[in-house]
Task: inverse folding
């Protein structure tokens, strides 16, 4: 390491410009920095070599001495008559180079001091709609609680007739630099919170915020086919940003109210369909409800409770395609109540003539007793 060629270490020619040397150092310092290579001794040694080379070549006087005498220029006592510089060791500071440049590239921070602009916060809002509205789509006007520019100070935050002054802590940059050992890092100014300004006489209405709470009315198109829990994003309709930054977004969470008749499963609708045992036995035509009105449905004879009848195309239209779901009616054979004397008489007569009915006429009853028999065999 003591005989390293500083130009070779940085990968530049002996005629390289100061800018080329700085760029080469920046690239290698990022590559071998200890924070990126924790526990890697080889990378740590490389970083020391790179730093030592840059410390020499970035200084015009040291570089001239090195070009003339090589490493001998910096050995103990050597070159003393010409102002020797002594040795280099450890993580000595690299002359004229701001480590915040490296950290800004490594961790995504801003390289130079500048005022911080904060994008407005995203807003969340919930809206409740009916199943019919979810199926067909609906337009809603919503009043969203948010912030708007103060109409007294017009966003400046300062009392009318006064103005904000440059922050004395960061001198208007919005950021401050903190030095830890040899490293220099940048963070938002704690005094002005990145605005770069101080307000000595704040506006009485907004108390220096430059904005006040308000209700904003927006119109949102809820598309046909939307389902419970899905969200709609309105770009730029959130809280306004600070210092001229863009507004955030508004997210509308859609909640579909439970329906009295239908239950939704994806694009399909389901409902119960009560029918009389006469229609169930003999078959017939009944009316069934849909989201578009009533339709006729043929019930086959000998229909049992639980049978599922499909009404094609009467479900929910897909949000992203032309596909439409179906309506499924679940048959429920209803036992009549509050019978008249005549109805009771007819049923008793039916029961008498049904005595000894073939088991093939009562398939569920036959199946039940077959299972009972298997249980006790």
Result:
């Amino acid at each position: 390491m003591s005989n390293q060629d500083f130009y070779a270490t940085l990968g530049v020619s002996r005629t390289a410009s100061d800018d080329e040397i700085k760029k080469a150092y920046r690239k290698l310092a990022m590559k071998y920095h200890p924070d990126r290579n924790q526990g890697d001794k080889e990378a740590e040694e490389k970083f020391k070599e790179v730093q030592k080379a840059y410390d020499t070549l970035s200084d015009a006087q040291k570089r001239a001495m090195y070009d003339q005498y090589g490493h001998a220029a910096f050995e103990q006592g050597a070159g003393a008559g010409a102002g020797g510089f002594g040795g280099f060791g450890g993580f000595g500071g690299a002359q004229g180079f701001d480590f915040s440049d490296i950290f800004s590239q490594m961790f995504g921070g801003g390289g130079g001091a500048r005022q911080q602009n904060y994008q407005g916060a995203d807003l969340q809002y919930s809206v409740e709609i009916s199943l019919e509205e979810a199926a067909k789509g609906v337009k809603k006007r919503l009043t969203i609680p948010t912030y708007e520019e103060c109409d007294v100070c017009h966003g400046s935050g300062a009392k009318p007739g006064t103005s904000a002054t440059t922050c004395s802590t960061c001198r208007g940059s919005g950021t401050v630099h903190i030095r830890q050992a040899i490293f220099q890092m940048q963070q938002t100014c704690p005094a002005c919170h990145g605005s770069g300004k101080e307000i000595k006489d704040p506006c009485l209405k907004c108390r220096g915020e430059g904005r006040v709470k308000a209700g904003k009315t927006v119109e949102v198109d809820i598309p046909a086919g939307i389902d419970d829990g899905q969200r709609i994003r309105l770009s730029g309709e959130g809280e306004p940003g600070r210092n001229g930054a863009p507004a955030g977004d508004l997210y509308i969470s859609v909640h579909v109210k439970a329906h009295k008749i239908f239950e939704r499963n994806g694009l399909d609708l389901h409902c119960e369909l009560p029918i009389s045992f006469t229609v169930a036995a003999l078959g017939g035509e009944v009316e069934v409800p849909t989201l578009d009105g009533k339709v006729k449905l043929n019930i086959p004879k000998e229909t049992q409770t639980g049978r599922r009848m499909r009404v094609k195309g009467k479900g929910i239209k897909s949000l992203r395609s032309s596909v439409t779901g179906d309506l499924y009616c679940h048959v429920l054979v209803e036992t009549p109540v509050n019978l008249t004397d005549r109805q009771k008489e007819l049923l008793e007569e039916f029961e008498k003539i049904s005595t000894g009915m073939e088991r093939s006429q009562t398939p569920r009853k036959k199946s039940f007793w077959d299972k009972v028999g298997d249980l006790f065999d």
